[in-house]
Amino acid sequence: MKKIIIDSSIIIEFLRTGKGLWLRLVEEKEKNTIELIVPAVVVAELWSGKSVNDSKKERYLKRMLEITIVKELSENEAKMAGKIRRNFGVSLADAMVASCAMINKKAELVTLNVKDFVKIKGVKIFKTND
Predict the structure, then answer these.
(1) What is the pTM of this model?
(2) CATH of 2-119 among 3.40.930.10, 3.90.980.10, 3.40.50.300, 3.40.50.1010
(3) How far lies 27's CA from each of 30, 34, 54, 76, in Å?
């Protein structure tokens, strides 16, 4: 089963529009072809957003996270994230997401912010067939 690391941009897109790649990922998960993994730092990013002040969107977010695996940051991932931030100049949150994708060697990262991650060697970006 393919492991998919989800960046906050995918979930934010769905919370804002009710559309997007999230729906396709859920369909694939229901077919048992992929496993959805959300790094813990993404959970923090999502809960820090103003959109979850809306109780309906908060409920959506809770349900969305229930069908994913929330991945805690290991010490090795933390060290790697520090190196990624230092070497590539990305935000700490993006560095943590990238390290999660890199440690899980067969995992692919799904994001709407491809430009933030393509420069990081070793991160596999999920390709859509659109």
Answers:
(1) 0.92
(2) 3.40.50.1010
(3) 5, 9, 26, 32
